[in-house]
Each structure stands twice: as C-alpha cells, then as structure tokens.
Specification:
41% strand; globular; alpha+beta; 2 helices
Length: 123
C-alpha cells in the first residue's frame, strides 16, 4: 500500500511544496522551497525515512473535511493519492491557508522533531 501526499504550501512570495510517501509503515518525503526575488533555484530537502504508525495525516484530513469544496478563487493545499483515487483539499484565502499550514507543521513536527522545516513563525 502506497499513499502519496502532495502539498502546496505557497504563500505570496514564499513558494513551497512538500511531497510525502507512506509505504509499509514508513514515511519519507521531499520539501521544495524558494523565496521569490531572493532565490534563483529551489532548495530541496530530503526528509529521512521514519516509522509512521499513528496515521497523523489522516487526522489532518479529518479536521479539514470542509476544504473539499471548490469555491471561487480556491487553491489546492493537499492532494492525497491512494489506490487510484485522489482527495483534494483547498484553501480560500491567505488567513485560511496559514491556519492549515500551522496545523500541518504541528503534525509534521511530531514526525520530524529535529527538522527546522516545520517551524511556524511566531507573531
């Protein structure tokens, strides 16, 4: 069983996509990021293969079921691809997107506590 997650975490000039792969009780992934006007190429960070037992990404999907509706100006946040089916979650404005990213980072910080890729800026 392979589950793929494609996340679009881009906010204004900070471009970021995460690609996660869950297979046989493990998770691994790649983070691509670039800041418009500062970076000329994407930085690629490989997330090491880790045990994945708690299905924490499923809890993210459960708390964000309201995001499956395509509304005006909706942008995709997350695509879960499993067994030929795709579930897509959307954001509807920057504040909404920021709230989702904060929740996602909190979950990923549980899986990758040593990584600085899931630090959400403090106000």
């Amino acid at each position: 069983m392979v589950i793929l997650y494609d996340l679009n975490l881009t906010m204004e000039w900070a471009i970021r996509t995460d690609e996660l792969r869950i297979e046989n009780g493990t998770i691994e992934g790649i983070v691509f990021e670039k800041i418009e006007g500062l970076d000329t190429v994407f930085t690629k960070t490989i997330l090491e293969k880790m045990p994945y037992q708690f299905q924490v990404l499923d809890s993210l999907l459960d708390t964000n079921k309201h995001r499956t509706e395509v509304k005006n100006h909706a942008q995709y946040l997350l695509r879960k691809i499993y067994n030929g089916d795709t579930l897509t979650l959307y954001s509807y404005n920057l504040a909404d997107r920021s709230q989702f990213i904060q929740e996602y980072f909190g979950i990923m910080k549980l899986l990758y506590p040593q990584s600085d890729k899931f630090e959400f800026p403090e106000n």
